Amino acid sequence: MRRSIRIIWLPILLLLLVENGRGVKSALNYLIGLGSYDITGPAADVNMMGYANMDQTASGVHFRLRARAFIVAEPQGKRVVFVNLDACMASQLVTIKVLERLKARYGDLYTENNVAISGIHTHAGPGGELLDAGVNRSPSAYLNNPAAERSKYQYDVDKDMTLLKFVDDEWGPVGSFNCNGGSISTDVSKINKIPRRISSIIPLVKDTHHELLELAATFDSSSGKSTIKFTSLAKRVRSALRQSDTPAFVSAFCQTNCGDVSPNVLGAFCLDTGLPCDFNHSTCGGKNELCYGRGPGYPDEFESTRIIGERQFRKAVELFNAASEKLNGKINYRHTFVDFSKLNVTIPKEGGGTNVVKTCPAAMGFAFAAGTTDGPGAFDFKQGDDSGNAFWRLVRNLLKTPGKEQNDCQHPKPILLDTGEMKQPYDWAPSILPVQILRIGQLVILSVPGEFTTMAGRRLRDAVKTVLTSGDSKEFGSNIHVVIAGLTNTYSQYVTTFEEYQIQRYEGASTLYGPHTLSGYIQEFKKLAAALISGQSVESGPQPPDLLNKQISLLTPVVMDATPRGVNFGDISLDVPKNSTFKRGDNVTVVFWSACPRNDLMTEGTFALVEILKGKDSWLPAYDDDDFCLRFIWSRPAKLSTRSHATIQWITHKLLLQVHTGLGISVLQRVFWGQLSILQVLPVLLWWHDFSFPLLATKDIV
């Protein structure tokens, strides 16, 4: 099944704007490839990448997930690729397999050196780096950083947003790449002549790796045909509305050093008393389970997500419209793998000179199990715990008892899980990590495989910038922008400063390789930066393991779907009441008899669709899986039941609705200008499709 992201190649100018920055002019054009594709996984039964909660399983779709690819190349020169995933983080295994398929198709054009795959950290919800979009959730740890260092910054989270604007010399703006702390789906796919939906269920057959590589190698790459006049059979809102004479706009909102940043900007409060949580431990009466952060739309988390997303979007639009500094210069990159379980790190010594310290095999501290105010843990764990307790040590020892050397190396972290020394059925934590620098003119991207805290990221950026602008180097001068792309190429938990690590909040307890982890990153990135400006190559380093054949899945396949006698898939189970009236913000809900959505991922399609009637018989799509106001919720009456329901919820916006029949959701709608401005501003008939086509996803379709 073809899964390639469609790419368009454009001669293009890149404009960059950092808030409050200045612009420079350049006539250099780059070649740009932009693409987007649906990567939404199973919408049922699969445990979500979130807060280690076994009850947090998929049960529908709020937004479809996408991969957005950006390629920047010098004509006849080097190129770099950045892929932004609507996923919690990049996976080492996914990165390995993507690179294998790229090699099968393109040879050595795309390798681990010039390809970066980064996640948006969607499990935590949108967070940001704007004045009103993010707060530091571990301020007690931040305050342990030196006062002189803290005095250089006005805030305890970064407030800069860097936006890269892609401008075609013929079509104008065609995309943007935004480095901040959140994620918004704001793009349209570039799919040309494919069916409305493609089943992506591929049987897991053993020993087919070689055959899959051969299959990937048979795919033809883009022939460079014109990107205008796209046709699409996808019955999607954005497919119907996109202009046919220009390429679709692709935008990415990327994560940076947001390890200690939370979108719960109102603060953390106790559920029982309503009072603020304990400052140092984020507890309520000694218990962490009652301490929760509040977003700007509290108590509605959907509304908080919308508000935070809109704030980031508005700032991005402001920067996009004001961008004036043109990127100018070389495309370049450096990459290496480093074993962080036993890295010798040279650090400065007080009074002069240096010391050599070591990183440690990975380990998780007791405070890791306490969670954060964005998602508290359970039992009697708490943040800021630098001692642990006897009971949980006994439980830990049933899995693995850390030795003296490991305890000393990780000090003051009390080890709860000695993951770096746990090897069955395979390694519990990575040890070999990728570090990477991508250069696009005066923009330098540091690809890091984890979540750096605010101050940790500042130290890394400053260290790299110092190397790139020091000595006799004339590559950059003072005009350089260094940004961090977090959660890239693989994932290795958190990275705090040495001082924050001593406090053992959640982030410090989740800093796997000990108190000198950040110093190790700074050392290795300085090496890459020096090689970048000197033109020297770097060793590839030890290769990470390919664990595909060792993966374990406890999820059973869909065995059978059924409906009651006389009922068909897609029939209405619960309709809206007749003659109902809905005002703006109301929830219009209909329940249908469904099959399990794991039968078909509906790739590039939609489970839910609202259509609007224009004229007498022309139905236009109005809302689908990519709209915030539309929700597809799947459920079954019991875990092993063969019957299931699809609940479709539509939160109305700027609409006045009158339900005048009981068939589906046939409603009379008065459209107010601004919400559906492309449609006729007159009373029209809005009809909610009977969903027979997406909900007939039975076993036979696979």
Overall geometry: globular
Mean pLDDT level = 81
Figure out the total of helices. 13
- Main sheet, how many strands, which sense, barrel? 9 strands, mixed
Query: Span from first to last CA?
Result: 13 Å
Q: If you compute it from the alpha carbons, what radius of gyration comes out, rounded to the nearest whole angstrom?
A: 26 Å
Low-confidence stretches: 1-8, 20-27, 124-128, 181-209, 215-235, 654-702
Helix content: 10-25%
Instruction: Quote the beta fraction.
Output: 25-35%
* SS elements, strand count: 37
Structural class: alpha+beta
EC number: 3.5.1.23
Active site: 262 (nucleophile)
Enzyme class: hydrolase
Cofactor: Zn(2+)
Describe the protein in words.
By secondary structure, this protein is α+β, with helices and mostly antiparallel strands. It is built from 13 helices and 37 strands. Strands 1, 2, 5, 6, 7, 9, 10, 11 and 15 form a nine-stranded mixed β-sheet that branches. Strands 3-4-33-34-30-28 form a six-stranded antiparallel β-sheet, with no helix packed on it. It has a six-stranded antiparallel β-sheet with strand order 29-35-36-37-31-32, with no helix packed on it. Helix 1 (92-106) crosses helix 4 (209-217) and helix 9 packs parallel to helix 12 (517-534). Its cofactor is Zn(2+). One of its GO terms (molecular function) is metal ion binding.
Notable characteristics:
702 residues, alpha+beta, nine-stranded mixed beta sheet, six-stranded antiparallel beta sheet, 13 helices, 37 strands, 18% helix, globular, disordered N terminus, disordered C terminus
